[in-house]
Design a protein that fits this description.
It is built from six helices and no strands. It has 179 residues and is an all-alpha fold.
Length: 179
Amino acid sequence: MKNSTQKRALALCRASIIAALYVALTYLAMLFGLDKGAIQIRFSEALCILPVFFPEAIGGLYVGCLLANLLTGAAALDIALGPIATLVGALGAYLLGMLMRKKNIKNFFFKCTVPLPTIIANTIIVPFVIYICYTPASEQSLAAIPFFALTVFIGELISAGILGVALLGAIEKKQKYLK
């Protein structure tokens, strides 16, 4: 059995790896040009299901998003609010994971709810960041915010929803073979 120092070290290493993966996957999406256009796909958002398995993923995801936004030249408000949206989503995934374990829920459709906190948090927060930071003043109109919300929702549905649920299933399958 591992002692508490070993457990803390393992958790810190895991959080660091998750943060590094988040940054690397963000750059990969940029390499394919998926970070441009109305609907943006960030592969890194699929990682937001990891708190179901590892509580330390919450901090790793926050730091990863913060670093990704800093390193990719995001606006200051995006650097501040983007990681908060990721943090809210990660906390929601963690709570859903706790509920699944407590109630012994193995239902696939319930597992599909794990990315919802990430999708919702980003759909609420990011459109305002896009409007304030990335929309030229000459084109700003409050009517654009619902459009931005829709495009963020679609991007998150693909990134966190579809890719995240696929990752969740792959990790669960791998865990079954490891037991």
